[in-house]
Amino acid sequence: MDAPHTGELAHIGKSVVIKGELSGSEDLYVDGNVEGKIELRNHSLTVGPNGNVKADVSAKSVVIQGKLDGSVNASDRVDLRKSAIVTGDLTTQRIAIEEGAFLKGKVDIQKESGKAGSAFS
Amino acid sequence: MKFFWSSSKQTAGPAVLQRLTRRSSGMAEISRLLNSTSGDGLCVLDIGSTSANNIRFFTGMGHKNYSEDLLRSSLDPALRIQDSAGKTVVDSRKFLDENLVYANAHFDVVLCWNLPDYLEESLVKPTIDRLWSVMKPGGYLLAFFHTRDAGPDSICYRYHVTGADTLEMQEVKFAAPGRSPADKQSPRLQRVFNNRHIENLFRDFASIKFFLARDSIREVLVVR
Lengths: 121, 224
Description:
heterodimer; A: mainly beta; 10 strands; B: 224 residues; alpha+beta; Rossmann fold; six-stranded mixed beta sheet
């Protein structure tokens, strides 16, 4: 799948390795290796099919096609595509999981008001 | 208890994913428990294949859903060791170091599905013992066991919860380690438990209830 074309987008290619804390005010597409922490408060993170992320993630929305090992806190939604391999807890308002995705962890749906409820798309 | 040893005959080719609907008395009991709970919601552990249906069902009711595909995890080649007789077995200690790592008395409901029938022999009892530890007293565990009519080529199904007492069964196929991802194979039925063996397996639990159905599956609901 191509990287999302939503305004400004930072792109980490598949040969890139980053260790540390990543934060930003734009959408981020990761197709390389990131280890540490990712914070994109009002923006989206996409882990591409070659992406290998070992980090706790905080973003508005998170789309995972590759590997992610860490907790995910998405204020809006989480999308696990069929090639996703996720180990970690997911906290979000809405979640979509394609057939074939692998998840080892907790799913906790938290509505904006703080109340849990149905939020599947 | 009948055991089925592995066979070298494996058929390659495209996966035939059957989806069958099944009414489940055990799931109906679980749903009654889930519906009767208010407040923060319950903790549900699903140790079958990752299922969007199941996550939707339980989170839609306000509960927290934990997923761990233990059968897939048990196939990790890194878990294979040689025992004292030179036989290749699965390292149960390493398996439990990497899976089912939770605080004691954490879960209200565990969906075991057909795992005990397909899990490697060395993992069955240690896994059940671990589940006992991570369940709250009074928690429910639902497991499915083949009846003695089942043969070694019985299809391995994964279960999707589609209603309070309704499941959708879908054939499971994994890409075997070292083989092409396109060459998926169905897990092989390892054994058929009789009732006494099932009672023995869950002897540390408070109570056990059997539900018989017209198909070749016994549903077992145990209370921690």
